[in-house]
Amino acid sequence: MEQNTDSIAACQNHFFKLVGWNPFSQYQNFNQAARDILDIKTNTGVSFSSNNQIYDYFKSQYILSLSPQLSACVSYLSSSLPISPFQNAFKIKNLKSATLPAPLSRDLLAEDSSLKQTNPYSILKVLNYRSWDQAIVYDNFCSSETYSSIRSKANYLLSVKAYLEIKTIAGLYINQFNKDSQLKINWVSVSNKKRSLYAVAQYAINKNKWSSACTFVANSGLIGLNGIYHINGGINDLFLQPNTEKPRKSLYTVGCEIYYCLKDSGGGLSIGLKSTSTIPERFSEKTLIVNPLMGYLTLSYCQQVARNLIGATRIDYNYYNYLSEMSVGFEYWGQLKPYENNQPLTPPRDSNFIDLFYDYIVKFSFSALNPQSKQLYSSSLQFDRQFGSIIVSLGCSILFSAKHCKHQNNQEMILDSNSSITTDKDHINSIIQSNFNKSNYHETSQYNNDTFWTGILPIVDKLSLQIQFYL
């Protein structure tokens, strides 16, 4: 049911832009660049969505899934600031003049640096907001008097999602006190459970040199405290104005997280190191995350190979049981419509519908899983393409399971394979778990001595088709 590209989440990121909040500076997003490329969300079935963009302070999203079973999801969002991130040719080509409108309604069109990667009127660019796009925030908004006055005041954002089939409601409330402090509350209510309310509260502080957050999970009594510190500068030093003479440099960051569960009387510790470089068209991020108590170690590397091509790799290792997983992937931005000028504020000329074919995105990831598991490899492919105000997404996930055979008394061979299926409840659980940066490993499966490996069996796990309308 959950979409790969969610317009409600895109509106939330746009809200962060307006208030000057950098969500990637928190420890739970320490290796977000590699996760954006390698963790491809592939759903099952055919779904349609309608995204209403008529009102600036209120947004709505309606999702209807036709297969494998009929289900629906309704989402609403309200904010104290006007949020209009989805600018496209259908909305602006009939403007009487090409002068710069009010910044609150047309700020995305002022992102000159976005021309290097994608069409300035692309909805896909807004939906797929990446950590290496942070330069856009500082290059265009930091010197604006209008945004300075906004960021000195308190603002709020409230969103609600209702999953009709499983009778579940999920909500998000953000109270932005100023550009440096934020209170965020996630909650989920499930109707068929006794303790139906799950809530996660987080208070975070973002500074140029450091950031910190305190998280509390109501049901389990989980308390977490994390923070990061930039060793050789501030986060704003990476995103300078293009006309400045000071060269850009790599930023070295150290982070730590401590969490303790009151209900289970158990805790954990996570330590991270990161190097980030935002050289024009050569973004790179190297991260190391260690959980010494559980024995988890994660190495990730994200590199911009070309202007529109970014690759990533990640290795998960447990030094207690010597199990490891490796993932590689890439994300490519293609352009179907050439740029006609260098002024993003100039509306496109009147033309046929074929000229409104904008950008497309191709994402691919391949993972070598736990060798003791029945699932040896997994592969995901996603293709998104924009047709004017319509986005079509195709997704496919393939599992390569180990083919094991076992001798019986009658000498017959029995095939033993396994496949995983993701349900909507996985999204509900991820809301609670996403606030803590912990590595996930696949469960192992042991075999008897009379079982032996005979080959690899590919299984198509998921196929999805999503059509999104932006009205």
From TrEMBL:
- This chain belongs to the protein called Mitochondrial distribution and morphology protein 10
Does the record bear Ribosomal protein in its keywords? no
Q: Name one GO cellular component term.
A: SAM complex
List the lineage, top down: Eukaryota, Fungi, Fungi incertae sedis, Zoopagomycota, Kickxellomycotina
Does the UniProt entry include the keyword Transmembrane? Answer: yes
This protein's UniProt keywords: Membrane, Mitochondrion, Mitochondrion outer membrane, Transmembrane, Transmembrane beta strand
Q: Write down the InterPro entries for this protein, in alphabetical order.
A: Mdm10 (IPR027539)
- Report TM segments: none
**Annotated PANTHER family:** MITOCHONDRIAL DISTRIBUTION AND MORPHOLOGY PROTEIN 10
Q: Which GO terms describe its biological process?
A: establishment of mitochondrion localization; mitochondrial outer membrane translocase complex assembly; mitochondrion-endoplasmic reticulum membrane tethering; phospholipid transport; protein insertion into mitochondrial outer membrane
